Amino acid sequence: MRLKTLKDTEVGKKTVFLRLDLDVPVSDHGNILDDTRLQGAVPTIEYLIRRGANIVMAGHLGRPEGFDKSLSLENVGFFLRGKFGIPSSGFSRTKLKGLDAFKIGERIILLENLRFNKGEEINDPEFAKKLADTSDIYVNEAFAASHRIHASIVGIPKLLPHFAGFRFEKEVEELSKALEKPDRPLVVIIGGAKIETKLPLVEKMHQFADFVLVGGEIAEHDEELLKLTHEKIKPSSKLIVAKVNEKKDDILQSSIEEFSKAIQEAKTIVWNGPMGVTSKVTNQDLPSEQGTKELAKIISRSSAYTIVGGGDTIAFLKKERMMENFSFVSTGGGAMLSFLAHGTLPGIEALSQSFFKSS
To answer: How far apart are the first and last CA of the chain?
Structure first.
């Protein structure tokens, strides 16, 4: 899939609307607990700065219903200020085209949480135009939000020349490897909760993968998964659904051993979602993390090409200092699942369309 990227345009002295993935986990005091998604956007930001562009950064945090001080992007602004060596005196509240924002030095503006405005999630054309009026070029660097049909994802590209950020491009490139002639056997491991978001991937991968391993909370739905497999489709893969313990917060050792046999045969492994309940607090270990920890070790010892994603999974691997053991770590959670299930995303489709120059 060929996307137009920043290297396909000239950004010098132009203002770039940079849609970032700013939905990072924060503590009760507003401190950022995991900056993985923010760090992923740094190469694109540095490229724009070196090329002399002015940047209007935008994104969301959480699921607010109107203004919510606890979900303000102010602390994200502090992080970015520090990351790019801007003194504290260079950070202040401001307005841009009537939108609440933060000024970060002379050339960067960070808009306040887009979801404070209801026009974002309903993809209101007027809100999209208001955002587009701030800039000359649109760049999507928010792969993890690109399964959403929101104004800042699909609305603005209709109004501005649009391009993919470097991290966005990398996400599409790496995940496409699992869909376009992957080295086989292909093993897909699905865990976590939210069975409604996982079922499309389970269905797709039953027709495509060699092994589908299911653990985590969704393993409790084995009857539903098996019914889906045998009645709706003609599976080409072997399905293994983990058994869970009495507390239903982790998978059994016998299931880990069964998973291990499939993983040892794999040439490509895709993993999304933990096997049990994982801690949201850095450095805190839970008994229910044992299945996830053992699975991570088994996968990391494999010679296969390994792709891992999902917020809880990444947070766990970062806590365990195992991130570097995987070939590619996707910043996408639901977006990763949706891309693997459908081969595209609304945000990708938006970047493929022509824009209409507003008067």
So the answer is: 32
CA-to-CA distance for 140 and 347, rounded, in angstroms?
Answer: 8
Rounded Cα gap, residues 274 and 272, in angstroms: 7
User: How many C-beta neighbours within 10 Å does residue 242 have?
Assistant: 26
**Cα–Cα distance for residue pair 135/188, rounded to 1 Å:** 41
CA–CA separation, 171 and 337 (whole Å) = 12
- Of 81, 91, 82, 59, the closest CA to residue 72 belongs to 59
In the numeric block, the tokens 């924060």 are attached to 26
* Mean pLDDT for all residues in the chain: 89
Structural contact between residues 23 and 59, judged by C-beta atoms closer than 8 angstroms: yes
* Last residue within a domain, chosen from 171, 194, 227: 171
Q: Are 255 and 138 members of one domain? A: no
Residues 318 and 268 in one domain: yes
Convert the pLDDT of each residue in 108-161 to its tens digit.
Answer: 999 999 999 999 999 999 999 999 999 999 999 999 999 999 999 999 999 999
Query: Is 182 found in the same domain as 167?
Result: no
pLDDT tens by residue, 281-333: 666 788 889 999 999 999 999 999 999 998 889 889 988 999 999 999 998 88
* Model confidence, pTM: 0.90
Report the candidate in 186, 250, 245 with the shortest Cα–Cα distance to residue 212: 186
Structure tokens at 315: 């947070």
HEC profile of 142-161? CHHHCCCCCHHHHHHHHCCC
Give the HSE-up count for residue 80: Cα atoms under 13 Å, Cβ half-sphere.
32
Domain match, 136 and 213 both = no
pLDDT, tens digit, 9 for 90 and up, residues 76-97: 999 999 999 898 888 999 999 9
